[in-house]
Amino acid sequence: MIYPITIYGNPVLRKVGEDIDRNYKNLAQVIENMFETMYQSEGVGLAAPQVNLSLKLFIIDASPMGEDDETLKDFKKIFINAKIIEESGKEWDFNEGCLSVPNIREDVKRKAKIRIEYYDENFNFHDEYFEGIASRVIQHEYDHTQGILFPDRLSPLKKRLLKGKLNSISKNNVKVNYRILLNK
Ligand code: ZN
Question: How far is the CA of 50 from the centre of ligand 1 (A)?
Answer without folding.
Answer: 8
